[in-house]
Structure to design on (384 residues):
């Protein structure tokens, strides 16, 4: 009697795409993904089965997760959306709308205490809610999960009541919620409210209410940006960061930092996401795992996780100075009133410049950076 040889085919590795926050800067991520998508066949499924996003990166991650079965199509739709984006599609940008919003904010805080005032924000991001409801079909997320094209989608926001980082995730049943001292993972159905919460830059945009809590930008309390992907079982991490290289100050004599300069530094610190420290921790853990035998590592629930970190090769400030005049005049007036200069405070402006020429330049920058590192990326993603 002949025995049948059963060929055991190892399951494909779970590759996670981690997209950090940065407002309009997130267009750079679209350029990187546009280049990668061209290295695959037209109808190829996404090489990423896990998507993790914070702030503007959460919008990109969710849109791509909806098209996990067709990677190039998903990137093409996302690229089209960003290339057509205007400031008025993200927040109210006319004189009348800005004055009405600020007046409503001030009047609400002059009423009696038993009237609950709305969350404070200098800018009204209701146009973004309308845009997200129109362009993202959230039902597709569950469809991709059922068909095994998507393992999990994670969106991180900050709970202002508990000062904890909350990761809302939707994925396969084997992904279990997690609890850490300053971070929790909560299973739910991802909606527009989660994206608005994750992208609500403090002071700039109002917090978003989910359940009984108010949530803001996911980068505020995020101390371990790689954790959501690792908790969902990722074995490879592609991280597209939005922290540009540091440039020297143009000022011959350093001056005391003003309100806008401090705001720019705070926003840069928020969106840094402590990523460098988390990558160093991952590297140390990989060294520890490599020194253990496979059985002991399995008993300790440890595994090797490789990571590829990609960030902009050029600073954003020169682009901001070039395209600052494309920003609506009412927004420029508000920024001038707050003491924000297009030249000296270009860092904070780079987050809010949602105009086509600036955005398309960022997409081209991301595309070129990915092409320059094509051999490394194809090796990491095992692209033949």
């Amino acid at each position: 009697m002949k025995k049948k040889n059963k060929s055991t085919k190892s399951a494909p590795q779970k590759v996670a795409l981690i997209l950090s926050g940065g407002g309009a800067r997130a267009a750079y991520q679209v350029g990187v993904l546009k280049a990668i998508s061209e290295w695959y066949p037209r109808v190829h499924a996404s090489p990423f089965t896990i998507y993790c996003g914070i702030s503007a990166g959460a919008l990109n991650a969710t849109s791509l997760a909806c098209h996990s079965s067709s990677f190039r199509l998903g990137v093409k739709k996302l690229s089209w959306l960003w290339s057509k984006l205007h400031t008025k599609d993200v927040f109210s940008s006319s004189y009348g709308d800005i004055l009405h919003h600020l007046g409503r904010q001030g009047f609400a805080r002059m009423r009696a205490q038993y009237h609950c005032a709305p969350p404070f924000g200098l800018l009204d991001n209701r146009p973004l809610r309308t845009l997200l409801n129109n362009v993202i079909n959230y039902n597709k997320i569950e469809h991709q999960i059922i068909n095994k094209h998507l393992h999990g989608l994670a969106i991180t926001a900050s709970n202002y009541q508990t000062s904890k980082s909350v990761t809302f995730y939707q994925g396969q049943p084997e992904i279990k919620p997690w609890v850490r001292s300053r971070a929790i993972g909560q299973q739910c159905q991802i909606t527009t409210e989660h994206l608005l919460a994750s992208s609500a830059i403090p002071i700039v945009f109002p917090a978003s209410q989910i359940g009984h809590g108010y949530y803001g930008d996911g980068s505020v309390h995020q101390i371990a940006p790689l954790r959501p992907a690792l908790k969902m079982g990722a074995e490879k991490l592609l991280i597209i960061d939005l922290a540009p290289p540091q440039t020297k100050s143009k000022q011959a004599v350093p001056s005391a930092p003003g309100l806008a300069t401090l705001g720019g530094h705070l926003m840069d610190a928020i969106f840094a996401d402590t990523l460098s420290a988390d990558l160093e921790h991952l590297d140390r853990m990989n060294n520890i795992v490599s020194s253990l035998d496979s059985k002991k590592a399995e008993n300790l629930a440890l595994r090797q996780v490789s990571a590829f970190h990609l960030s902009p090769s050029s600073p954003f400030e020169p682009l901001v100075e070039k395209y600052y005049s494309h920003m609506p005049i009412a927004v420029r007036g508000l920024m001038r009133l707050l003491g924000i200069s297009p030249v000296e405070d270009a860092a904070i402006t780079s987050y809010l410049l949602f105009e086509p020429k600036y955005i398309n330049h960022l997409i081209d920058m991301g595309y070129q950076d990915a092409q320059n590192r094509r051999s490394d990326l194809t090796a990491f993603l095992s692209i033949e």
In short: The chain has one domain: 15-87+126-243+258-314+356-381. The beta strands are 15-19, 50-54, 152-159, 164-171, 178-179, 183-187, 208-210, 213-216, 236-240, 306-310.
